[in-house]
What we know:
Radius of gyration: 15 Å
Distance between the termini: 14 Å
CATH topology: Nuclear Transport Factor 2, Chain: A
Largest sheet: 4 strands, antiparallel
CATH architecture: Roll
Oligomer: single chain
Amino acid sequence: MRRTALALAALITLSPLAAPAQGAPDAAGIETVIRSQVEAMRADDWARAFTFASPTIQGIFRDPETFSRMVTSGYPMVWKPRSVQAGALTETPRGLSQAMIFEDAEGRFFIADYLMIEVGGEWRINGVSIRPAPAESA
């Protein structure tokens, strides 16, 4: 399973479709924000998890309770992952996107692309797109 995660990380990092962002500011800070939100969700600290969302996302879900219902009902791989690994930080037409590889409780892998924006000098999550990771090739 770890070999699969490492292969996925290499695939994302080396993908020609995912060119690294030129001069991407504070890549470590972006990853820290995402990991901090994941840790808050693991601890069921939804008030804290909600603080890492952008004002747009906070406006959509309005409060931590509504946000928690969305995550727990639809995204267990993010809420209670077995493991999390960072992929590539890329520049997209919508802004910076940080790929994260999640392994769920059943050992399945997912790629989550976190759209990031800077708000008041701090990074915030402005959306997440999740898809199953490609199967390891033989």
